[in-house]
Amino acid sequence: MCVGLSARVIRINENGTALVDASGARRQVSAQLLEDLEPGDYVMVHAGAAISKITSDDQTETEELLEELL
């Protein structure tokens, strides 16, 4: 089973990476798989790469589910 983490894009870097915030934890991830990525977008992150854009509703639902599990 693969697990992705939802995160909000803080900054896009010229080297093909993005700074993202996942529930308060900030990290650099590869942004090379996604076109037209902008700060403020929400993404699904897996294995150090942003693999898809998601909506803010998806982000909220994911956070609520994680809170229930923890």
Please identify, by name, the CATH architecture. Answer: Roll
In quaternary terms, these chains amount to single chain
Number of helical segments with 4 or more residues: 1
Number of DSSP-assigned strands: 5
The N- and C-terminal alpha carbons lie at a distance of 19 Å
- What is the beta-strand fraction? 35-45%
Structural class by secondary-structure content: alpha+beta
- Helix share bin: 10-25%
What low-confidence regions span 5 or more consecutive residues with pLDDT below 50? none
Q: How many domain modules?
A: 1
Describe the structure.
The protein has 70 residues and is of the alpha+beta class. It has one domain (5-69): SH3 type barrels (Roll), CATH 2.30.30. The protein is built from 1 helix and 5 strands, in the order E-E-E-E-E-H. Strands 3-2-1-4-5 form a 5-stranded antiparallel sheet, with helices on one face.
